[in-house]
Amino acid sequence: MKTAASHTPAPPVPAPAPRPPSERGPWLLACAIAATGVAVLVAILSGAVGRASTVPAPPILFAAATPSPSVATVAGARVSTAAARTLGLTARDTRRGGSGAPLVAHPSAGTLAARRLARGPESAIATRWMEGFYPIYATAQKSFHVNWLLLASIHMQESAFSTAPSTYHGLNFAHCCGGPMQFNVTNGPVTTWQRVSDSYRYGSRPTAYDHMTATHPSIYDDFDSIMAAARLLSADGAGYGLDGGAWSAAYDYYGHDATGVLYADEVLARAVGWSQHGFCFNCGVDPVMVQAVHGAYGGPVLLALTSAPAPRAKAARVVR
């Protein structure tokens, strides 16, 4: 006979404790991401990444001939009326404002400042930085039929390709001009900038570029400023040719004085050099080319400036 104890069920066997998930997979993934990041950083710092250009510069239209010295400069004689007309001296007054000031009236900073700019940028400019301007140069050239090398040379001369410290805020040392192309905003009542500020309407704005402002027009917007400069150069006689018309337009851009002559000599010499040897935005200006440009265009104008009779001093009025 079985007892009641014989019917007691056996105690249940306890289930095994769950094992924690393995951390090997996440650690391997994290290490792989970190290694990739380090590799990319090293490649960037070493120049292996970002070395090749992805946005090409606009094509150079032609290799401009090195200018030849004019007869007036070689002979040391006064500039004839015909030569002055060729260089734009007689037409320049029609391009001035009501006050008699040039459209872009830069106060003279002296020849030392101008010569400093001729050396090229004070610090190396990255290719990626310059690529942002290439579509703008191309649009400006197409819209106003001005050689983009002349436009780029003025961009270099004015703000070292927008790398000058005050390019995108405030005004220059003379408290008159600002932006990548250093437009005068104080020579009113209608300033130079106001006359050409709507130039951006003549071309298609790139979908994206650096320093795009929220409102237009703005002297601090790369597209607005460069398009306005191209329109101004075109109005002052510049075209596709890197010749006397381009020199005269650059001279007008700065202002009509001895420093303006040096400015135009350097601007055109740089553009002609680029046309012959390729666009080198970190290079200075060849002094031999500057002398050639000065002999052909700047010398006669400087001679006319220095040989012109000094204005008569007005007699003092005696107040009794």
Question: What report would you give on this structure?
Answer:
The protein is mainly α and 320 residues long. It has one domain (71-306): Lysozyme (Orthogonal Bundle), CATH 1.10.530. Helices cover 44% and strands 1% of the residues. Strands 1-2 form a two-stranded antiparallel ribbon.
Q: How would you summarize the topology of this molecule?
A:
Layout: H1 24-46, H2 71-75, H3 81-86, H4 111-118, H5 127-131, H6 134-144, H7 148-159, E1 177-178, E2 183-184, H8 192-196, H9 222-235, H10 244-254, H11 258-277, H12 287-307
Antiparallel strand pairs: 1-2
Helix pairs in contact: 4-11, 6-7, 6-9, 7-11, 9-10, 10-11, 11-12
Quick overview of this protein structure:
The chain is mostly helical and 320 residues long.
> What share of residues is helical?
40-55%
Overall mean pLDDT stands at 78
How does the major sheet shape up? 2 strands, antiparallel
Shape: elongated
Enumerate how many helices there are, as a single number.
12
- What structural category do the secondary elements indicate? mainly alpha
**Would you list the SSEs in sequence order as H and E?**
HHHHHHHEEHHHHH
Q: Largest sheet, order of strands side by side?
A: 1-2
CATH class: Mainly Alpha
**CATH overall fold name:** Lysozyme
How many strand segments?
A: 2
Report the sheet-strand fraction: under 5%
Which stretches are low in confidence, meaning pLDDT under 50 for 5 or more residues running?
Answer: 44-51, 72-117, 315-320
